[in-house]
Structure formats: C-alpha cells, structure tokens
Amino acid sequence: MATVAIRTLPDPVLRQKAKRVTVIDGSIHKLIDDMIDTMRANSGVGLAAPQIGVPLRIAVIEMPGEEVITLINPQIIKRQGERVVGEACLSVPGYQGEIKRSAVVKVKAQDRQGKEFRLKGEEILAQALEHEIDHLNGTLYIDHVESPDKLQRLDRELPL
Ligand code: NI
To answer: How many angstroms separate the alpha carbon of residue 26 from the centre of ligand 1?
Structure first.
C-alpha cells in the first residue's frame, strides 16, 4: 500500500468522465489499497480514483468507526428526499460549502471481487455516495453550490 498525491483543482483529471472497470485484477486491487491509504492519510471520509489521477469508476468510503466500502462501477438507482448539508472535498482544499443532497440513495456496484451488491445509504452515507459518484462523472460539490456566499473557508467539514 502507498499514499499517493491528491489531485486538486484545476487538474483536468477531476473534470473527466471516468471509464468503467472491465477487468478487476491485481493492478485494480493495488489501486484500491492505495486509495484507502491515501484517504486515511488525509483524514478523508471518501475518495474517488480520479482524485489520485486515475480516471476509472472506483470509489472508497470509510465512515467513522465503520468498515471501508469499495465501490467499482457504482450507479445510483434511487434517490429520495432532500437535505441541506455542509460539504468539503480533498480536491478543493481549504473550502467548504452548503449544498442540497438526497436524504436516501440506493446504489448498485461491484465489490473488489467483482460481485454485484446493492447498498442503501442515509444522511451522511447518502451524501458520501453522491459525492464520490459525482467525482466519477467529473462533477465537484462546488458545482452544486447555489451562490458564492455558500462557499466558505474550511473549518469543520470532513472532506470527501
Ligand atoms: Ni471529493
């Protein structure tokens, strides 16, 4: 495992649409391990592969006190409700913003073995799932900020 530098704005890899993973081999497992290491080293709650410069549809999420969730080729299959949240991102260092996210999301993805699974996330997990899957489509949370006054210097939010 290794820690990798986090790509930050305006790195173009953050704006690319990431490609689907077709073969899950040792190189993908190493990438996932590096993502987990890098997320932890930066005290992040989630990380998407483009954030370390790899435009593939892979994300990891580690809610405090929970096991790591690895998502390969994740897709949101259902969204419910809406809530206003504070959000931050390791690729947009120094800032946090207020945006709207779904209250509940259901996601379909593959695990590290390639096995398909479904996951329902509420509140912060729903927020993390939407945030990381946005990354795979080249979208950042700042794109959801309604006005510049909703973007502030970072003091509190855990970055995703
Ligand atoms: Ni992020």
So the answer is: 25
Query: Using CA atoms, how far apart are residues 116 and 118, in angstroms rounded to an integer?
Result: 7
- Given a contact cutoff of 8 angstroms between Cβ atoms, the answer to whether 108 and 77 are in contact is yes
Question: Which two tokens mark 59?
Answer: 């994300």
Centroid of ligand 1 to alpha carbon of 118 (angstroms): 22
E-only strand ranges, the chain: 46-48, 58-61, 69-80, 83-87, 95-101, 104-110, 116-122, 151-153
Tens of pLDDT, residue by residue over 101-146, are 999 999 999 999 999 999 999 999 999 999 999 999 999 999 999 8
Write down how long the chain is: 160
User: Domain 12-153, what architecture?
Assistant: Alpha-Beta Complex (3.90)
Radius of gyration for the alpha carbons in the chain, expressed in angstroms and rounded: 15
Q: Known catalytic residue: 87?
A: no
Active-site residue (options: 62, 130, 132, 157): 132
Cα torsion 110, 19, 132, 145 to 10°: value is: -150
Domain boundaries, the chain: 12-153
pTM for the whole structure? 0.95
Task: State phi, psi for 82 to the nearest 5 degrees.
Answer: -150, 145
